[in-house]
## 1
Amino acid sequence: MISILTCIGTRHDPWLVTLAMVICLIGARATVSLVRHAAVERGSVKYAWIFFSAIVIGTTAWTAHSVSVLGYISDGPTWFDPTLTIGSLLISMTGAYLALVLASLPAPKAAPALGGALLGLTIAVMHYTGMLAYRVDGIVRWDPHMVAVSVILSCVLCAVALGILRAQVASRRRDLSASLLLVAAMLAMHFTGMTAMKIVPFGPVQPEDANEHVAALAIAIAAGLIIFAGSFAGLIDSRNRREAGEQMAALALVDRSTGFPNRAAFRAQVRERCQSTPPGDRFAIIAMDIANMPAISEQFGTRIADLVLQATGNRILQARKQGVFLARTGEARFCGVGRVTNRAEMLLRASKLHATLCRDLLIEGIEIAVDIRLGGVVYPDDAAEPELLFGKMQAVLARAIADPLRPIAIPDEVADAFARRRLAVSAALRGALARGEFELLYQPQVRITDRHVAGYEALLRWHHPVLGTVSPAEFIPAAEETGGILSIGEWILHTACREATCWPEHQRVAVNVSVLQLRQPDMAEQVRAALAASGLSPDRLEIELTESLLIEDRSRAHHVLRQIKALGVRLALDDFGTGYSSMDVLRIGLFDKVKLDKSFVADIETEPQACAILRAMLALGRELSMPILAEGVETDEQLAILQREGCDKVQGYLTGRPMSVSMIAARRDPATARA
Ligand code: C2E
Ligand code: MG
Ligand code: MG
C-alpha cells in the first residue's frame, strides 16, 4: 500500500493524476446511467445501450490510463508504440462489451459478478498492453505479486459494482456507489500496475515527437467520446426525469388542498414497501379519520372544515417519526406508512397519535372538538399482499368509526369479516339501481274477519350477481350511510305506485320510508309526483315509518308528514312495540294504522304478559279509532288469539309470503276482487 502511495506521490505529475481521476468519474457516472437504460430495454435496443456503455467505460479506462502514463515520471526517456496503443483501446472496448453482455444475462445468478470480473480483467489486459506500447530506453522489470494484486483488485471492485447495478432498483445512492467502485477499480488497477513496474535506464535517448502527438490526438478523441456519451446519457436522463415529473403530475399524486401525497401515491407506496421490505421486517399502516367532519361542515361551513382538515394534517406532520410516509387518502382521512418492529409498537404509536390529534382545535377563535378514529394494520402479519392489506385497513377503520367506545381498532377476524361485508355491500350498492338489480315484492295484509287482502306491503329485494340476494335489513342501513337510499327510495315509490294500479281498486300499497328520505324538504313533492305519474289514487298509498324517525327530528318530520297527509296519503306506524312505544306518537293523530312488531306477536302464545299488552293495545286502538295490524303472524294459534282479541288485520308468512307482482296477478281470485 505504502509503495503504491509512494509511486503516486513521487512518480506521477499531480495535475495529470487529477485529470485522470476526473475522467474516471465522468466516465463511470455515464456508464452507470447507460447500463441502467440497457437494463430496462429488450432485444436489439438493449444491446445498443450495452454497446454504448462499453464504448464509454472502455475509453474511460483507456484514457485515464494514458493520461496517467503521460504523467509518469520515468527514470529514462520514453515514447509510445502507436499500434499497440490503439490496440489497447480496442481491447478495452471489446472486452467491456463482452463483460457487460455477460453481466446482463438473466442466468446464472452470478452473471453480474462474472461480467464484472471480466470487465476488471479487460481493464487489466488493456493496462498491460498499453504498457507494452510504452517504450523506454532501459530494462523494464515487473513485480509479479503486484501485478497479481492489480488484476485481483480490478476484478473484485468491478464485480461488486456490476452486482449492485443488477441486483437493486435504481436509486441515487446505489448508482453513486457503483460509479465510485468503478472509479476505484480503474485507479487501483492503474497505480498498483505502475508500482509493479521498475525501469533500469540505458542512457539518454530523445523520444519521437510524432508518437507524443499520436498519443495526444488519441487521448483527445477518447475524451471527446466520453464527454459526448456522458452528455447523451445525461440528456436522456434529464428527459426521463422530466417525463417522470410529467407523469407524476398527470397521475396527480399530490392532493391539491393539503399538499400531501394522495390516495394513488399512498397505494403505490404500500405496494413498493410490500416488495422491498426484507423478510423479518415489518411496516404498519395507520389510517386516521376525522369522524365528525360532516357535523363540523354542517355546523361551521366548509371553509372552517377545510381549516380543520389542514390543522389536523399539520398535527400529523409534526407528530411524524422519521421515515414515515404520509398521505391524504380520503375526504377527512390521512394514512401513515412506517417501519415498526411489532404490533405493540404500532398500537403505541396509534394511541399517541390519537391523544395528539383529539385535542380541541382553536380555529378563528372557535373551539372545535375533533373526533379522530384510527385503524392500524401490520405487514406482513395482517396481510402480505397489498390489496388484502388495503381491505383489512378499511375494515379496521370502519370498525373504529362505528364504535364510539373504541376509537382505535386493529384487525379482529370476526369483527372485520362483518365490516368487510358491509364495505362490499356499500361498494356494490353504487350503481345497483342503474343496473336494475332491485325488485319489489309484496306481502299481503289480510283482514282478519273475512281473510280478504286489504293491501300489500312493498318489500325491497336486491339481487347482486356476486353477493347474491341481500336482505334489506343489511343493505338499507348501508344505503342510508352512503345517501343512496334517496334515489332508491324514489324508485320504490314510483314502482310501487305504478304496480299497484293493476290491483283491484280497494287494495292499498304500503311503502316503507327511511329517516333520510323524510329529511328531504321535497319529500311530499316526490310522493305527489309518484302518484301523478302512476295515476294511483292517493288514498291507496300508505307510507310506513318507524317511531324512531319521529323521535330524532320531531318538528321537521311532523311538517313533512302533514304535507304528505294533505295529499290524501295514509300513514302507518311500523314496528310498534320495539322502540320507545311512546303513547305520544299515537296521540298526535297523524297515523291511520299501527303495526305491532313481529317480535311482540311471537310471544303471545306463550307469555300471558304479551297477551295482556296485546289486549291493552287493541283497546287503545279502538279508543283512538286506529286500526291495528299484527306483523309476523306465522301460526294458526297466533291468528286465533289475535282474532279473539279483536285485532283488525294481520301480515305474516301464514297469510302470505312476500311475492312478485306477477305472482299476485296469478293468485288473484274472483272472491278477493269482488270484496
Ligand atoms: P318491516 O317494514 O317491518 O317489514 C317486515 C319484515 O318482516 C319483512 O322483512 C318481511 O319479509 C318480514 N316478515 C313478514 N312476515 C313475516 C313472518 O311471518 N315471520 C317473520 N319472521 N318475518 C316476516 P324484510 O323484507 O327482510 O324487511 C326488513 C326490513 O327492511 C323491513 O321491516 C323494513 O324496515 C326494511 N325495508 C324493506 N323494504 C324496504 C323499503 O322498500 N324501503 C325501506 N326504507 N325499508 C325497507
Ligand atoms: Mg314495514
Ligand atoms: Mg315492521
## 2
Amino acid sequence: MNFLKFKNKKLFYENIAISKLANKIKTPFYLYSLGQLKFNFNNFKKVFKKISPIICFSVKSNSNLKLISELKKLGSGADVVSIGELKIALKAGISPKKIVFSGVGKTEEEIDFAIKKKILLINAESEAEIININRIAKKNNKVVPVGIRINPNISGKTNKKISTGNKDNKFGVSMNTCLQIFNNQYDYEFIKFEAISVHIGSQIMEVNPFKKVLNALSEFNKKINQIGINLKYIDLGGGTGIPYSDDEKNFNLEKYSDLVFNFKKINNVEIIFEPGRSICGNTGILVSKVIYLKDTLKKKFVIIDAAMNDLIRPALYGAKHQIHPLLKNNSNINKYTEFVGPVCESSDTFISYNKYQKLNEGDYVCINNIGAYGRSLASNYNTRPYCAEILINKNKYKVIRPRQKLESLIN
Ligand code: LLP
C-alpha cells in the first residue's frame, strides 16, 4: 500500500496535497507519512506473526525521535550502534529489554552505559571487544547478556558499499572464531553468551541470500549445541530491500517468513529482527523547489534547492531516487533532463530522464523514498542547515524537527 498518490494531477501524501505545504514551508524539507510508517511496521509484524519475533527498528535508518516514539507505540524495539542512538531509543520510551547494540567500535563509555541500562543484548563484533565487555561488566559487578555477530561470508547480492557479510568486510567474526570464543566461555565470568547475530547487508531484494544464511546458522547452531551452548536468541539483522522504482518488485517477505518459521522450529530460539529500510524507506519524501533551469546543447539541468547534503545516497551509492513533480501537466519535453543540487561537487546530481514534463523555475518537485538513510546521513556540507522534518497524519501535519538555524552554523 502506497500513501503517496496523484489525484487529479496533484501529488498527495495521505489526505494532503503536498503543493499546499510547499507553498507554506521553506524548502527543501523532509515530509513523512505516519500512515505509511504504521502500515509498514504492522505489515512486517503481521507477515512474521507466526514467529513472534522481537522487532528492533534500526535507528540508524531514521533517528527522528517522534518517528521512533510512534514505532515504540506499535511495539517496536531498537537496534542501535552508538550511545546517541541508544539515548534516542530510551527517550522514545523503548524498553531496554528490547534494545540491541551492534557496531565494530563500541567505546568504553558506550559499553558502560549499555550495561548500566541493562539492554537486551550487546552484539559483540570481535574478541577484543568481548574482553573489554567482560572487564567493564566486572567493574559494574553485573553479568551481561552478549551476542556474537557472525560474518558468514555470504554475499547479500547488493551494492558493494552496503554489503557486510563477506569475509573481507570489517563486520562480525568468522564461525571458527565464534566457536573458539564459545569454547573459552568460562574465561568470561561476567558474560552470558545468549545470542548470535548476523547482518549481511542492506537493500537485498532476493530471499536466496537469507536462505543461505539460515542454513549456515542452523549448521553452526548444531555444532555449538554439542559444546553446551544453547542460545536464547538468534538475531537475523535487517537488510530486506524496497523497490525504488515502479519496475522493481517488492521483497518477498512472506517467503522469508516461511523460511524463518522452519528455522525457528529447528533451532528452538527466539528470533530478533533489525529492519530499517523496509519499515521507513518509503515513508518519506524530500520536497524541493526548482531554482533554475539551465539548457545546454546535450541536456537540460534542473537545479533544485535540495542537494547531496540532504540526500547523499545518489552520490554515495549511485542510488536512483525517482523525482515527481507536485503538479502534473500533460507536457513531455523530449530532452535529456538531469536533476542536480546547488552543492559544489559534480556528484551532487540526483537522477536523469530522457523525457520529463515541462518545469518552470519556482515549481516544486519531490524526491521519493528518502525515509531511510535520508536525514540520518545528511550533513552541513557547504554550510547548509539541516532541513525541517514534517509529519503528515491523515489531513493534519506537524513539524517534528524544525529546520536547523543557520546561525548555529555561523560560529
Ligand atoms: N542491523 C545492522 C547490524 C545493520 O548494520 C543495519 C544497516 C541494519 C540492521 C538495518 O538494515 P536495513 O534493514 O535498513 O537494510 N546507508 C546505506 C545503508 C547502510 C546500512 C547499514 N546497516 C544506504 O543508504 O543504503
## 3
Amino acid sequence: MNELRRRYLTTPIYYASGEPHIGHAYTTFLADTLARYHRQSGAHVFLLTGTDEYGQKIQEEAAKRGVEPQQLCDEMAARFASAWKEMDIEYDRFIRTTEEEHRGVVQAFLTRLHRRGFIYDDIYSGWYCVHEERYWTEKDLTPEGNCPDCGRPVRQIEEKNYFFRMSGFQEDLVQHIEEHPDWIVPEIRRNEVLGFLQQPLADLSISRPASRLHWGVPLPFDEGHVTYVWVDALINYLTASGAIDPDGSEGSQGFDDVTGSWWPADLHIVGKDILTPHAVYWPTLLMAAGLPLPRQLLVHGWWLSGKAKMSKSLGNVVDPLDLREEFGTDAVRWYLMREMPTGADASYTPERFLARYGELANVLGNLASRAISMIVRYRDGTVGDAAGSGLDGSIGSTLASYHEAMAELKVHDALEAAMDLARKANGYVETGEPWTLAKDPARGAELDEVLASLLRTLIVLSALFLPVMPRKMAELSSSLGLSSVPSLEEAVRIDTSTLEVRKLSPMFPKAETQV
Ligand code: ME8
C-alpha cells in the first residue's frame, strides 16, 4: 500500500460521564467530513473515535447515579456509538478505554517509560479539580479560589504521586514545533503553545492513589496507584493504531518498529480546551517512549451560546438531534461545517442556522431542481455529449480552491468554494435562458450545450458536497443517473450522454420553523 495514501484521523475520546452534544458532534462531523474527503480521493482511511471511561469524574458520576462505573460507561458508550451511527459518522473503530487491549497498551507504555528512567515518585501537595482532573497551584486559582478552567471549587490534597520527567523534553518539543510550522493549526494555537513553553515546563503527575480513585488502569510497577486519566486517554490513539502488543509484559513489543500499524496518526482533531494535553503531554510522552509523533493537530474553537461555551454543565447545550428531526442530519452537518471557520469560535443561533439552511435550499437545491426538471422536460432525461465551455472554467477553478482549502484543513472555505460554483451555475441558467432556447427549434444545439454543462456541474457538485452531506448527495447522484457519488477525479470525466436523469423530490424543503 502506498504510504502517502493512508490517513489515520482521530477525534477526542469523549467522557462517558455525559450525553453526546453539539460540541462533540461538531468535532466528530469535522473528522468524518475530512475522512470522507480522503476516502473519496482514494486514500485508505482509518477514522477513530470512542469514549474516555476512567477517572474521578466517571467514578463520581456513577456513584451519584448509584450504579457501578462500568455500567455507566457501557450505557454511555452505547449512546455515543448509536448517536454517531444515526448521524452517518463512518468511523472505523470506536475505542473504549476500559477495553482489555487498551489497558494492556497503557501498561506496556508505562513500563517502557519506567524502564527508561522517565518516571519517579514524589509527594504532591496542592489543589485538585475533580471535574478537570487537574492539579493546580495556589497562583493558578481564580480570585475566589476556584478552578481556573471550570470555576468549580477545588480540593486541597497531599499524596504520593508518580511523575513523568516531562521537563526534560521541553527543548525537543519547542524545536519540533519550530521545525514543523504546520504541526499545530491554526497558527493562533501554535503560538499559544510556544508561548506556554517559554516558561519552564514542569514534570507531569501520571498517577492517582488507588485509595482515592480505584477507577483507572493500575500502574504496572505499583498496584497502589492508577494511571492519571489524561495519560491513559491519550494512549488510546496508539492502542487503536495496532502498533503496540497489549500482551507485551516486557513493555517493548512494537515500540521500536511501528511499520505495519497505523501509527503515527496523520491528524488529531481536538477542541481548544484540550490543547495542552495534545500539544505538550502527548508528544513528550511519545518522545520518551521513542515513538514517532502524530503528523498534525487541528485545534478547533468552541460553539458558543451567546458568549458562553456550550457545555452540559452550563445547561445551554443545543441538542443536534433536535435540529435533525426537522432538517435532516445533512443540513446540520452543513451548518456546523460551513458556519465555523475551522479554528475560530462560532455562536449558534437559530437565525444563522436558518440562513445557512436557506443557502442549501435556494442555491444548491434550487439549481438541482431547475436543471433536472429542464433536462427531463426538454430532453426526456438524456442530454447529448455536447462539449461547450459553459461552466467548465468555473469547475476547474472551484476544484483547485476546494482541494487547496481541504489541504489547509479549512473545510468552511472548501464548502464555500463548492457553494459558489452552485451560485455561478444558477447565474448561468439565468443568462443562458434554456426556456427561451427550448422554444426555438433552430437553437437545439445551444440548448444541449447548456443542459450538458449544467449536468456536468451537478455531477461535480455531488462529489464536492459528498463529504459534508453524504445522504443528500447520494440522492442527487442517483437522480442524475449515477450508481454512486463519483470521486472528484471521475466526476469531471463522466460522459453525460450515457446518463438517464430522473426527477428529484425537493432536497431541502422549505423550513416550517420561523424565527
Ligand atoms: O475532554 N464547542 O472529553 P469531553 C466545540 N475525554 N467543541 C466542543 C464543545 C463546544 N462547545 N464542547 C465539547 C475530553 N467539544 C477528554 C478527551 S482525548 C484523548 C480525551 C468537543 O467529553 C471538543 O472536541 O470533555 C472538545 O475538545 C471535546 O468535545 C471534549 O470532550
